[in-house]
Amino acid sequence: MPTPDxxxxxxxxxxxxxxxxxxxxARLTMQAVADRxxxxxxxxxxxxxxxxxxxxxxxxxxxxxxxxxxEAVGATADPHRDLAELARAFRAFAHARxxxxxxxxxxxxxxxxxxxxxxxxxxxxxxxxxxxxxxPKHALEAARTITAWANGFISMxxxxxxxxxxxxxxxxxxxxxxxxxxxAVAGRSHPDSPPPSGRTGRADPIEAGPGRARSTEDx
Length: 219
Known about the structure:
Elements: H1 9-23, H2 30-37, H3 41-44, H4 51-71, H5 79-96, H6 98-104, H7 116-134, H8 139-158, H9 168-189
Helix pairs in contact: 1-2, 1-4, 4-6, 4-7, 5-6, 5-7, 5-8, 5-9, 7-8, 7-9, 8-9
């Protein structure tokens, strides 16, 4: 009879996620994951070809989790409310899983990238609120602006780069309000404009070439 499997791909990914958050990406090794799931490294290679593939699987799982967190916010008839709640959920995810958050926004080779499907699902809630606020014509630009602002703020916050005191939470809320107002102005200026030729209103979630930074919303 064949020897029963001692681990599964899901267990490997869960172990990798735990190691990433507890020890950092530098210690996310095949040996560390093998030790965590209780197998020898050669057994791990039967399911994951390389460390690059392992990092890619973990990045994809993180993107899926982020997308589920954003989707759970839900959509209402008030896009101002929706953007505020999405931005808060995005920030909460980054604080809960800072290593995973940094990973999905870091430069990476093709083997360490999440799949197009995972990225597309993750950007869906942002594209919806961007369309509702700024209109179809400017949805892609609005989604990129939302993502760039939120990631920039959160990345500085996680790096401890806000050194002048003040209320960081209040600053984030201030940014959400000002950004929402600006996007709504764009939407009122072009309420019925169709998307530019060649665009569908959906993000191109992975435009990057090898080695270029990519993210859950690589607009």
